């Protein structure tokens, strides 16, 4: 089910992504999606392709990860008429939070969600721009578990398959529009 | 023109905003919009009210300020079928950038935009969640000026009128859905 139905659309999206060498550090090739977002018809295509996949599923909330995840998550929440829940970096959310740590290359950081962001048994879709090692998404899953809600799937625009992020997510289904 | 036409809608939005005292520091009452975003019909109402205002204007790109601005900006860009351009904090954008400094309480920080984010003479709408002192929006206006594009208006969900942000923005029109 992860094979895009419309190969030409995906190819068009891929061609608008810019490779930036040595960002954020030497040896990394960063996939820059800003040229894709700035073209109205391509930005729309991403959201519509995701909406096509999820329109018949029961989804109460879109859970989006700061900061690029907000871009895709908010447009999709609007399109699917669901609520929007932001997952933020430490000390950004003003009210009572749950936190989950995730590993950085050196040390760790944490992600937070408001304690009243979800009701138990709500069904949610997690969205981010890129699935890499799966570390952040895995921390987000943990947060959603604390709130008693159910992750029906993780959706991302780009999946870096060579980093095996899916494995880290265990049973949680993962969908990506573009794979490298 | 800044008077909301539909007062009941605005009242409903206002009631969903949570006051959080002493965030981010003692003495500040933070306007928390997460309860508003998490309710599908209210999130949708914000975007539709903004779309009503701008649907007949020529807008090429929505310019959204990290991070909460991304949420409103992306949904509105989808709704209005415009491109989406992120303004990010220092060192977050991977490619060549223009930077503009803005004052913090102690010291300063800077915002960045990709140098190819806009074509000269494009018409843009700047969007953020809250207009406070106008410092960040003013830095964003400066960036857009460097790219040769034209800001047709600044739109925000909440305007803290007692901080006089509008004055800092000079000739640039400002629209807000909710005023405190």
* Largest interface, C-beta closer than 8 angstroms, per-chain residues: A-B, 44 and 44 residues
Largest sheet report of chain A: 7 strands, mixed
Helix content of chain A: 25-40%
- Predict the CATH topology of the domain at 58-179 in chain A: Rossmann fold
Briefly note the structural class of the backbone of chain A.
alpha/beta
Number of strands of chain A: 9
> What oligomeric arrangement do these chains adopt?
homodimer
Short structural description:
The structure is a homodimer of 180-residue chains. In chain A, 32% of the residues lie in helices and 33% in strands. Chain A contains six helices and nine strands, in the order H-E-E-H-H-E-H-E-E-E-E-H-E-H-E.
Properties at a glance:
homodimer, 180 residues, alpha/beta, Rossmann fold, 7-stranded mixed β-sheet, two-stranded antiparallel sheet, 6 helices, 32% helix, 33% strand
Provide an overview of this structure.
- The structure is a homodimer of 180-residue chains.
- By secondary structure, chain A is of the alpha/beta class.
- Chain A has a domain at 58-179: Rossmann fold (3-Layer(aba) Sandwich).
- In chain A, 32% of the residues lie in helices and 33% in strands.
- The first copy, chain A, is built from six helices and nine strands.
- Chain A has helices at residues 7-16, 34-37, 40-54, 68-80, 135-146, 165-168, and strands at 18-21, 29-32, 61-65, 83-89, 97-103, 108-114, 123-131, 150-159, 174-179.
- In chain A, the strands form two sheets. Chain A has a seven-stranded mixed beta sheet, sandwiched between helices.
- In chain A, helix 6 (165-168) links the parallel strand 8 and strand 9.
- In chain A, helix 3 (40-54) packs across helix 4.
- In chain A, 42% of the residues are buried.
- The model of chain A has no long low-confidence stretch (mean pLDDT 95).
- Chain A binds chain B through residues 18, 20, 23-24, 30, 32, 34-35, 37-40, 43-44, 47, 61, 64, 66-68, 70-75, 77-79, 81-86, 88, 91-95, 114, 116-117, and chain B through 18, 20, 23-24, 30, 32, 34-35, 37-40, 43-44, 47, 61, 64, 66-68, 70-75, 77-79, 81-86, 88, 91-95, 114, 116-117.
